[in-house]
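retry 2 of 3: previous attempt timed out while embedding S-adenosylmethionine. Reduced batch size to 1 and resubmitted. Inputs unchanged:
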Amino acid sequence: MNSSDQQVPFRRTVVSYVQRGERMTVGQQRAWDRHWAELGSDVTELPEGPLDVQSWFGRSAPVVLEIGSGMGETTAQLVAAQPDVNYLAVEVYKPGLAQLMLRAEKLEVSNLRLLRGDAIVLLRDHVEPESLDEVRIYFPDPWPKKRHHKRRLVQPESVALITSRLRPGGVLHLATDWENYAEQMREVCEAEPGLRNRYADEPGGWAPRPDWRPVTKFENRAHDEGREIHDLIYERP
Ligand SMILES: C[S@@+](CC[C@H](N)C(=O)[O-])C[C@H]1O[C@@H](n2cnc3c(N)ncnc32)[C@H](O)[C@@H]1O
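retry 2 succeeded.
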């Protein structure tokens, strides 16, 4: 290990995503061509150091980072419902980001910026400590096979990294439909000294389902297949 490696707080050996194809529909491609230069950036193309979020949005406002926005179904609705926040979505899947821009265009929102790439690299290299008001991770890839659990996004190291980027009072909100992943999330967050469960007094420490979190196709499928959804809401004291 050389000296620059030692300065990196989190080095990844596996990633939490699979690289999917980049083929886009005509509508997605057009949305990409119209909006990406203004609204998006590749994580690998960001200038070295912290991202100047307030300048990018052109205003100072609370910052929410959603990791893994997928096809943007939930994200677009939440962005529209919270015009007073600067909403950052990070996702590796290009057609998903394009679809999110299409949805955002229809909803005429102006408080969304998109980042394409690995959220861990973004948080580690381009997000200032204590700068985020909220981090959301909804229905992350479950990696159900035991030998793949190491690929899950929610791990002690990633949660420590996320916590370090939250402001005091900032929130980490997680939701999943995989019982075993929900338990892992809870175990990891309970063991993170920088976090406190806002719903510690609720049975199991699970948060009541917030009625403002839109019901997605993942959630509907989970219901259909008899899986329960768990929300977890932690804050940095
Ligand atoms: C199962 S999907 C859920 C999408 C969305 N949150 C929803 O509820 O519909 C998980 C998404 O997380 C993305 N993802 C996984 N690991 C990521 C990472 N490290 N950085 C950015 N995106 C990631 C995947 O590409 C995938 O689109």
